[in-house]
Amino acid sequence: MKALLPLLVAAAFGAIAPAAHADTNDNWVVRFGVHAVDPKSNNGDLAGLRASVSSSVRPTASIEYMFTPNLGVDLLAALPFQHDVKLAGLGKVAQTRQLPPTLGVNYHFMPESAVSPFVGVGLNYTAFFHTRSAGALAGTSVSIANSWGVAAHAGVDVTINPKWLFTADLRWANIESDVKVNGSKVGTAKINPLVYGVSLGYRF
Question: What is the pLDDT of residues 149-185, one digit of tens each?
Fold first, then answer.
């Protein structure tokens, strides 16, 4: 999906005729799309073994309130992402689900233009649940602690008409969670993923 994102952005730029963003009193923007959570390549050591966490793609939604044409606050939500946890030499040892609601402040550089890039910063809370052991750890109790961390956001809005827009964006979140097996800590999973995708938005 990393390779597809630039192509989707380019297609949107080519398919949508340039048009100035209309001067409206619409302060809310809702977006529905799809995003991938792609953990960084080195996810730390658990029980002395190198851990890896798989990527996951799910439908997402966000809502943004524009205090000014340039400044907005947004909240990201999604269907639960699902990840496999593997250990070097042992393969898959657990599977977990997580919800990553993220609240942030975005600055839109050119809100009156047909193409408006933005950047943002915020706070991420990741809740892990339905964690189940597998493989070499089958039959044990595996738990992953919930996580609070900073988040960064960047993307571009492409105006379709005064009400509709296309958005391609990239987020980064600091997610580091203690992992326990049968109640004993075996290490910290350093997930720190990139979250990237596309969405269709509506102003109201």
Answer: 999 999 999 999 999 999 999 999 999 999 999 999 9
Domains defined for the chain, CATH in brackets: 4-203 (2.40.160.20)
Rounded-to-integer distance, Cα 86 and Cα 134, Å: 10
- At position 9, the amino acid (one-letter code) is V
Distance between CA atoms of 58 and 98, rounded to whole angstroms?
11
Would the pTM count as exceeding 0.70? yes
Nearest to 109 by CA among 68, 160, 162, 76: 68
DSSP code string of 78-105: ESPEEEEEEETTTEEEEEEEEE--EEEE
**What pLDDT, in 10s, does the model give residues 133-145?**
999 999 999 999 9
**Alpha carbons 87 and 155: distance in angstroms, whole number:** 34
pLDDT value of residue 24:
53
Rounded to whole angstroms, the Cα distance separating 57 from 189 reads 20
Say how many C-beta atoms besides its own lie within 10 A of residue 15's C-beta. 10
